[in-house]
Design a protein that fits this description.
Radius of gyration: 13 Å
Shape: globular
Order of helices and strands: EHEHEHEHEH
Strand order of the largest sheet: 2-1-3-4-5
Largest sheet: 5 strands, parallel
Strand content: 15-25%
Number of strands: 5
């Protein structure tokens, strides 16, 4: 079985870099994107095993990205991260099918636990 491809979508460069480093240290293949729009243009979109995305981003939010992916027929799991957690956004994310919801700053081991669970539940690979 191939190594899962994890897509990290966040407009904050430091969060992208830290998350990428954490995931690579755990053996994952990682691609990063500065926006939801950039991710949606990725030639490896259908290879993505899990999306880790910020909730609040310019133009298209993480929740909007999840909705767009579902509209396009992608069932890949999503883990949301946000610097502005609130119960309404958390409930929206989880009811939309999010595999996890984390407030920044988050513990690396917690993200890995969510990711491992999401990949296991999704069979470990991309879902088109």
């Amino acid at each position: 079985m191939s190594t899962p491809l994890i897509s990290v979508v966040d407009d904050d460069a430091s969060v992208r870099a830290a998350t990428e480093n954490l995931l690579k240290s755990r053996g994952y293949v990682v691609q990063t994107f500065v926006s939801a729009e950039e991710f949606l243009r990725s030639p490896r979109l259908n290879e993505t095993s899990c999306v880790i995305t910020d909730v609040q981003m310019p133009v298209m939010s993480g929740l909007d990205l999840l909705a767009e992916m579902r509209t396009r027929g992608y069932g890949v799991p999503f883990i949301f991260i946000t610097a502005f957690p609130n119960d309404r956004v958390r409930a929206s994310a989880l009811s939309a099918g999010a595999a996890g919801f984390l407030a920044k700053p988050f513990a690396g081991h917690t993200l890995i636990e969510y990711l491992d669970a999401a990949l296991e539940e999704n069979g470990g690979g991309g879902d088109t």
